[in-house]
Amino acid sequence: MASSPARRAPGGPVLQDTVTEAIGTALFEELAAVGYGRLTVEAVAKRAGAGKAAVYRRWPSKQAMVIDLVTRVATTTADAPDTGTLRGDVLEFLSAGAKALAHPLMSRIVPDLLAEGSRNPEVAAILLEQVGGTRRKKAAAILYRAIERGEIPADTDIELGLDFLAGPLYWRVGILRDPMDTERLQRLTDKVVAAIAAAPISDGEVASRA
Question: What are the coiled-coil residue ranges (predicted)?
Fold first, then answer.
């Protein structure tokens, strides 16, 4: 089998893609097994069948390695293809998210990183910006497309809509560990779309219901 082509980092050494991929796989396996706090560059390198130098040629620290690789995976699963309808876009987004959260490795890594964030403000801030911020920007495209199609009002609360897209799914799959089958994903999609498209209740209506 032909080896993967080598590539050179800007101003740095030639990096073999096969080694980079092996380190990435090892990082997720090790992170799921021991958690961020006990994770070491040495253990990742050993699991990957590489030397520590190979890791440090790619990332300057454990934190940089984890943030970079987790961000790549987390933001890829937020890609939302344009299906032509709000419901179709939401279903695609939720389906990808449910699959990612239910993955044997990610189902252990995500809660661990959230817990680490509560102890380590620097990690929390970086994850919020690079993972959370990027995912929300990608998801926002779903709502802006729906506005352009006339499916939802132009003054739709985008930030609240993004909370609807992420919150219920994470609660069900990430916290309760309850897998989403096709039927439940369809039902969740309908509820999320209805919530996003719902007109806000005026102060007068709130008072009349009190």
Answer: none
The answer to whether 125 and 144 are in contact (CB under 8 A) is no
Asked if CATH classification 1.10.10.60 holds for the domain at 6-58, the reply, yes or no, is yes
> Cα dist. 11→6, 31, 143, 171 in Å?
15, 30, 41, 44
Domain boundaries along the sequence of the chain: 6-58, 68-199
Spatial distance between the Cα atoms of 62 and 119, rounded to a whole number of angstroms = 16
* Residue 4, pLDDT score: 39
Rounded distance, CA 83 to CA 90, Å? 9
Tokens of 10: 């800007």
- What is the CATH number that goes with domain 68-199? 1.10.357.10
If you average pLDDT over residues 35-44, what whole number do you get? 96
Question: Which residue bears the tokens 């987004």?
Answer: 93
Global confidence as pTM: 0.80
